[in-house]
Design brief:
alpha+beta; 20% helix; VC0467-like
């Protein structure tokens, strides 16, 4: 298992094309500015691609015309025994980051001041960095894996692909925040991300955690 600590820096030239096939929806999409690092992409109900259905994607890097790199935050997966033997601290805290390079383990954490080469995504949320420092910290107890989130693979968009998907109204966008990214249970994350859109559209303000309450 490889651990990705520089993917956010190098993704643009390497990201594979994973086009999302979807029809424009009747949902009112509010996009006051182009997507940028730290934003959350929210998949509408109409998006049926199994990689992204009702997903919340954290944009870890975005370079217009070159590509984008992100992590799906709300698709938990079970680690196999080999992976648990190598990284026991990922138990019950592992997610499918996306369809690109699923053999690479990505780590979101709050330890940017401690872990060299970490990439700051937003205040309080860092990606990767020196893997040895992270693992030693987990083993010694000086760093808490419970405060981190671990991901297999990532999501990549080539060139202006993400801009094209916005033109197709394939995504909603909102600013990321630490609590939603790092502390929200995956089964309610999509619903709470939708509620964050209430600032631009009051209709989202009372969106329930449980779709059955809708």
């Amino acid at each position: 298992m490889k651990v990705g600590h520089n993917v956010a820096k190098n993704h643009a030239d390497e990201a594979k094309l994973f086009a999302i096939q979807t029809k424009p929806t009747r949902i009112c999409f509010i996009m006051s500015k182009l997507v940028e690092k730290g934003d959350l992409l929210i998949a509408p109900v109409s998006l049926q691609d199994p990689n992204f259905a009702q997903s919340v994607v954290l944009i870890c890097e975005h370079t217009p015309g070159k590509g984008s790199f992100g992590l799906v935050l709300n698709q938990p997966v079970k680690a196999n025994s080999d992976l648990l033997n190598e990284f026991p601290y990922i138990r019950d805290n592992l997610f499918k980051g996306g369809p690109v390079n699923p053999e690479i383990l990505q780590i979101l954490h709050p330890y940017g001041d401690t872990v060299q080469d970490s990439v700051e995504i937003i205040e309080g949320v860092w990606l990767g960095g020196d893997v040895e420092t992270l693992c030693q910290g987990f083993d010694s107890g000086s760093l808490s894996p419970e405060k981190c989130r671990f991901f297999l693979g990532y999501s990549g968009w080539s060139g202006d692909q993400l801009a094209t998907e916005f033109d197709m109204r394939s995504w909603l966008r909102t600013a990321g925040d630490t609590d939603l990214i790092m502390h929200t249970p995956p089964d309610v994350m999509w619903n709470r991300a939708v509620r964050k859109l209430a600032g631009s559209n009051p209709l989202y303000a009372n969106f329930p955690d449980s779709p059955s309450s809708n």
